[in-house]
Amino acid sequence: MKIAFAYALALPIGWDRERATHGAGIRTFPLVAASSCAFVLIALRALGPSAGGHANVIQGLLTGIGFLGAGAIMKQGSSIHGTATAASIWSVSALGAAVGYGAFEIATFLAVVNFVTLRWLVEVKRQIDKEPGSGE
């Protein structure tokens, strides 16, 4: 059930990224959340309450998802694109891990913040980019 919940929380984020034609989208975000949740659940079964063992699992998730996010970042001349996608992939991984540990309030908060940031702060960013001295 937890894996399905992590998947469901990430689905609207992935849908929104897909709709906006970003590289990572409807498949990537839910899969990252579900697999992060699964790794935590596996660790809970295999390691029990060992804090050190769980720290290693979280460290592995951070590193692995960091590499996945790095693949979303593109540099074209002096412009860099994909940093928001990379950060949101990382956030969705944290969402999945939170669900795995039963921290549903953290997971739900991350889902809402991620969706709102990616969906509604786009126009704010465009306005900032148009301001004099913004590099354009």
Keywords:
136 residues; mainly alpha; two-stranded antiparallel ribbon; 6 helices; 2 strands
Describe the 3D structure:
The protein is mainly alpha-helical. The protein has one domain (2-130). The protein has helices at residues 2-19, 28-47, 51-70, 83-100, 104-120, 122-130, and strands at 74-76, 79-81. β1 (74-76) and β2 form a beta hairpin. α1 packs parallel to α5 and α2 (28-47) runs antiparallel to α3. It is elongated and about 55 Å long.
What does the largest sheet look like? 2 strands, antiparallel
Question: Overall mean pLDDT score?
Answer: 88
Strand content: under 5%
User: Uncertain regions: pLDDT < 50 for 5+ in a row?
Assistant: none
State the share of residues found in helices, binned by percent.
over 70%
Could you spell the SSE succession in H and E letters? HHHEEHHH
Q: Secondary-structure blueprint of this entry?
A:
Layout: H1 2-19, H2 28-47, H3 51-70, E1 74-76, E2 79-81, H4 83-100, H5 104-120, H6 122-130
Antiparallel strand pairs: 1-2
Helix pairs in contact: 1-2, 1-4, 1-5, 2-3, 2-4, 3-4, 4-5
Summarize the structure.
The protein is mainly alpha-helical and 136 residues long. The chain has one domain (2-130).
